[in-house]
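Each record in this resource describes a single protein on a pair of labelled lines. An example record follows, reproduced without changes.
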Amino acid sequence: MAEQSSAKPLPGVLETGSESTASAPPRRPFLFLLGAITIPVIILDQATKLFVQAHMALYESIAIIPNYLDITYTQNPGAAFSMLADAPPWVRRAFLLTMACAAIVVLLYIIVRAESVSLTSVSCALILGGAMGNLIDRAIRGRVIDFMRAHYYDLNYPIFNVADSAISIGVVLILLTTIFGRDQEPKPDLSS
């Protein structure tokens, strides 16, 4: 004779076809994206910057792949690629902090509104992590620590950091999604 279990399923958890699961709102991936992408990017970015700052002298360079990749400790008071580096400090600081905060608010809104994990939401989480990593530098130090130097002999790409890399990867993924249209984000139903 089969034993009957006295355990009852939790409402809405394992019930299939019931009213409780059909009316439940879809799970949004905000916490997953924040915990799996954004926070690790911020931690990796800040840890690498602190390590370079603690172990290298300003402008010191260590060749990783000779003539191609170096670790070169610099500090960037401006925006990406040293834009606004020559502006008065108060203008530069106010503009960059305002722009970073505005970008963070917009990215948080996009991620919170995402219905599922998609290439777009992952891209936004990467950009958010990078923006927050560089914002921490600007707020604490007044400048961003950069240390990765990609170059071909004397042909140099601007020196960058982990946050810049996350932002660049996120932007490229968004561009690819826009061009090729392969995002899995469900489109809103406009029929009602």
Observations:
- The radius of gyration is 23 Å.
- The helical segments are 19-22, 30-55, 89-113, 119-141, 162-180.
- Residues 30-55 form the longest helix (26 residues).
